[in-house]
Write a structure and sequence with these properties.
The structure is a single chain. 41% of the residues lie in helices and 31% in strands. By secondary structure, the chain is of the alpha/beta class. A five-stranded mixed sheet has the order 1-2-3-4-5, with helices on both faces. Strand 3, helix 2 and strand 4 form a beta-alpha-beta unit. Helix 1 packs parallel to helix 2. It is globular. The model has no long low-confidence stretch (mean pLDDT 93).
Length: 116
């Protein structure tokens, strides 16, 4: 897996490329936690180059959402490929993950005040 991190205004954009599975989940989790522990509370995961998500990868995604809710931050996922969306649909995660069709919409969501 290749991970790219970019700052866009007040939002950190993490792009995952390749496969998010048991072989790459630790790397993905460590990148997220390093940013989170460093004070980043507005994070967008860009998934247009993510080819596959396993149950281990779903665990990492769930961790990001739980952490954001517990620590008054916001994370969002955007630009999902059809096969990744299907995995999230089957697992029921589309009901709990903030998913957006565009990077701009995801960034606006993470930048918005809670309840706004």
């Amino acid at each position: 897996m290749e991970i790219t991190i970019q700052q866009v205004d007040d939002v950190v954009v993490i792009q995952w490329k390749g496969r998010l599975d048991s072989a790459s989940m630790t790397q993905a989790e460590q990148h997220f936690l390093r940013l989170w522990d460093g004070g980043c509370r507005r994070i967008v995961f860009r998934l247009d180059e993510l080819d596959y998500v396993s149950s281990a990868g779903l665990r990492v995604m769930l961790l990001t959402v739980k952490k954001s809710r517990a620590d008054e931050g916001r994370v969002a996922f955007c630009l999902l490929r059809d096969n990744v969306r299907e995995i999230l649909d089957i697992s029921g995660f589309t009901q709990i993950f903030p998913l957006f069709a565009t990077l701009e919409a995801a960034a606006a969501y993470t930048s918005a005040k809670e309840g706004g």
